[in-house]
Specification:
Distance between the termini: 18 Å
Protein name: Bifunctional GMP synthase/glutamine amidotransferase protein
Organism: mine drainage metagenome
Keywords: ATP-binding, Glutamine amidotransferase, GMP biosynthesis, Ligase, Nucleotide-binding, Purine biosynthesis, Transferase
Helix content: 25-40%
GO molecular function: ATP binding; GMP synthase activity; transferase activity
Strand content: 15-25%
CATH architecture of the largest domain: 3-Layer(aba) Sandwich
Number of domains: 2
Number of strands: 11
Pfam families: GATase
CATH topology of the largest domain: Rossmann fold
């Protein structure tokens, strides 16, 4: 029979649609560090394959492009029809706004670097987070340190979205549609400069999308064991290896499935 991967680590998966951001690989790294399988596909990937992939959630990356340009990339309409949570980051938030009936404008001064995010209303991605909790104990205000890299900005949210965060220079720094579980942030949670970024991504992947955190070294080895056993069956195996650096790993990974073969 054809070897098949264990569904236990692959059924809960996130799809990252890449619009050309320099940080897209970082998004994938953060998701995998959480313990969830993910793949990066180009923004113009075959919509039918996106549907067959059946992700538990979709992340739209940033981009050096401008949403205000007619020929700029757009998210395939398929992602809005999957019925799964969406998380737009920077350009990803802007294309969501433009495609769903909001407004994006250019012509503003580019913003690159640190920004203080004011958390304006309750949102599952931000509730309880505050990088300055001691200073805000009396006022009740909450702020996050975040990293910005953009020129365009969302100036009007699409129908169904509510304001979740703002800065002194950006009235809409984050937006949320809790009913459809669609979220957008103008900043970059995937970079370390955004101090709570890892937790924000974890909340989206685990709490909003409902992914189990099984994409771990132990889970990957167990999956490899399953694949080898399915392919080898009761046959004997001759395994040739080179490079001393892989020998300890190979012994650990293959000793279990091949112990009796």
């Amino acid at each position: 029979p054809e070897p098949r991967c264990l569904p236990i680590i692959h059924s809960d998966k996130i799809l990252i649609l890449d619009f050309g951001s320099q940080y897209t690989q970082l998004i994938a790294r953060r998701v995998r560090e959480i313990g969830v399988y993910c793949e990066i596909w180009a923004w113009d990937h075959d919509p039918e394959e996106i549907t067959r992939f059946a992700p538990r959630g979709v992340i739209l990356s940033g981009s050096p492009e401008s949403v205000t340009e007619t020929a700029s990339p757009r998210a395939p309409h398929t992602v809005y029809e999957l019925g799964v949570p969406l998380f737009g980051i920077c350009y990803g938030m802007q294309t969501m706004a433009a495609q769903l009936g909001g407004k994006v404008e250019s012509g503003h001064a580019r913003e690159f670097g640190y920004a203080a995010i004011d958390l304006t209303t309750s949102c599952v991605l931000f509730d309880g987070l505050d990088d300055y909790a001691d200073a805000h104990a009396v006022t009740g205000a909450r702020k996050l340190d975040a990293w910005m890299s953009h020129g365009d900005r969302v100036t009007a949210m699409p129908p169904g979205f509510a304001l979740a965060a703002a800065t002194e220079s950006i009235p809409i720094a984050a937006m949320a549609d809790a009913t459809r579980r669609w979220y957008g942030v103008q900043f970059h949670p995937e970079v370390t400069h955004t101090r709570q970024g890892g937790e924000i991504l974890r909340r989206f992947v685990v709490e909003v999308c409902g992914c189990a955190t099984r994409w771990t070294p132990a889970g990957i080895i167990a999956d490899a064991v399953h694949v080898v056993r399915a392919q080898v069956g009761t046959q004997r195996v001759l395994l040739g290896l080179s490079a001393a650096s892989i020998r300890p790993w190979s012994r650990r990974c293959w000793s279990a499935p091949l112990a009796r073969n």
